[in-house]
Task: inverse folding
């Protein structure tokens, strides 16, 4: 995932867009118009932020599990009732198509409902002390207790649901949160926080800050922050790790997802799923399909169908119900995507379609023969860019898939159960999707990366457990 979280990505090549009076303007990625603004928080305000967060910590800890669950359930219902409004806000500030934004709103409802269930369910369990010799007179249990104050830093590409994935489990666990949404897309986050407060959450439980790297670094380094939950790019993740000190870190740092298409695959299914996986949200998707490794026997057939289906995608106004691919978050991001493709082409890659640039619109782009040491093959593109590569064997496909130093999801298309199971065992990824593209995600499943920089898991239950800590109680009956 690109690094635009602690310091906003400039929209015009200049610094963060402020009005000179401490406000950050929020722009529509498609039209460029200002659709709102947020107050910029400075590092000098950190003492005040931490004081509020301490009050929130005490308030959150005092809430019963029933109260936390009731708030989250009510918030889920409110988001569901206002789903179209949330979706249109996502379109306006993030540039997702209206169809994609509606899906994100529906997922946020599910994330909040799952969080409510976790507050009720995951309270701890009995420890069988009396099962061990010498402890026959002891009985006990452990509970799951809040960590305290959690810093949550979220990106622009899922401005509602990724915020819900931080806030829902944190509230379920009885924590206070300092939330720093992307400066590019803060409005959906603010509306979600307002909805939680409307649903009954005391307003001091969540403190929202907007600003650049200075305020982010000060919050991350604060000793009273017991966990940093970050979704974003590797460079920012490394900076957070250096700044944080002794506290929990949970990081989703992006990927470069491979998909294997074996000779026995259902090609119609594979083509449709991979086109969606590559170009959903204009490719700004950390589990988006980027490298497709196709058995040599079916390569020509797959390539022809994949390119034809890609050419049929409609790029344009995300408000239009018929648009398939909307803008990238900024024109600078679109230019950076084209530069990656141009670099690969200059080094021998073949352009099959796309590479068209119009402001923040960058057309879905398909290449083949991308050099293995190029940026497009080695790094996360986070753009509507996909590389096709023929492979001569299953072993070669797995080896090429695994040659990147970081990984979130992978996919494999096959009708052979043995191949599917072998791929599941051998692919180095946090999730292996069989007969789905890499971008499938269900909000209850564990979600995170393998290899470099990976730590912690999202998915409501797993984030909740990261955001709580066990407390053991042991009662010795011999003493009374």
Result:
């Amino acid at each position: 995932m690109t690094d635009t979280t602690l310091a906003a990505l400039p929209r015009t090549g200049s610094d963060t867009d402020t009005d000179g009076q401490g406000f950050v303007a929020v722009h529509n990625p498609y039209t460029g118009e200002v659709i709102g603004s947020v107050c910029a928080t400075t590092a000098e305000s950190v003492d005040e932020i931490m004081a509020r967060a301490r009050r929130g910590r005490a308030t959150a800890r005092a809430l019963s599990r029933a109260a936390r669950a009731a708030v989250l359930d009510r918030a889920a219902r409110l988001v569901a009732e206002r789903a179209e409004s949330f979706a249109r806000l996502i379109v306006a500030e993030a540039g997702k198509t209206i169809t994609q934004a509606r899906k994100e709103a529906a997922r946020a409802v599910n994330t909040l409902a799952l969080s409510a269930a976790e507050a009720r369910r995951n309270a701890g369990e009995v420890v069988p002390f009396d099962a061990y010799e010498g402890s026959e007179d002891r009985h006990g249990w452990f509970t799951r207790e809040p960590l305290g104050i959690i810093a949550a830093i979220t990106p622009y590409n899922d401005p509602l649901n990724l915020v819900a994935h931080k806030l829902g489990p944190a509230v379920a666990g009885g924590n206070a949160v300092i939330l720093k949404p992307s400066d590019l897309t803060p409005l959906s986050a603010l509306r979600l926080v307002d909805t939680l407060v409307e649903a009954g959450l005391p307003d001091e439980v969540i403190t929202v800050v907007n600003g650049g790297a200075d305020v982010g670094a000060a919050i991350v380094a604060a000793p009273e922050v017991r966990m940093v939950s970050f979704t974003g790019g590797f460079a920012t993740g490394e900076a957070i790790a250096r700044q944080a000190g002794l506290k929990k870190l949970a990081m989703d740092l992006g990927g470069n997802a491979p998909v294997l298409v074996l000779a026995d695959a259902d090609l119609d299914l594979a083509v449709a799923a991979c086109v969606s996986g590559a170009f959903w949200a204009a490719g700004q998707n950390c589990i988006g399909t980027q490298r497709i490794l196709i058995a040599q026997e079916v390569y020509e057939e797959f390539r022809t169908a994949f390119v034809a289906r890609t050419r049929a995608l409609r790029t344009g106004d995300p408000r239009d119900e018929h648009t398939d691919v909307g803008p990238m978050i900024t024109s600078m991001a679109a230019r950076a995507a084209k530069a990656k493709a141009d670099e690969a082409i200059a080094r021998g890659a073949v352009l099959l379609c796309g590479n068209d640039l119009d402001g923040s619109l960058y057309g879905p782009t398909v290449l083949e023969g991308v050099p293995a040491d190029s940026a497009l093959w080695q790094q996360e593109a986070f753009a509507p860019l996909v590389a096709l590569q023929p492979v001569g064997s299953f072993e070669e496909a797995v080896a090429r898939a695994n040659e990147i130093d970081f990984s979130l999801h992978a996919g494999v298309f096959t009708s052979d159960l043995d191949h599917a199971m072998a791929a599941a065992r051998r692919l180095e990824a946090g999730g292996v999707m069989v007969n789905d593209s890499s971008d499938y995600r269900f909000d209850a499943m564990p979600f995170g990366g393998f290899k470099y920089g990976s730590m912690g898991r999202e998915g409501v239950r797993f984030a909740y457990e990261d955001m709580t800590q066990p407390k053991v109680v042991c009662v010795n009956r011999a003493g009374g």
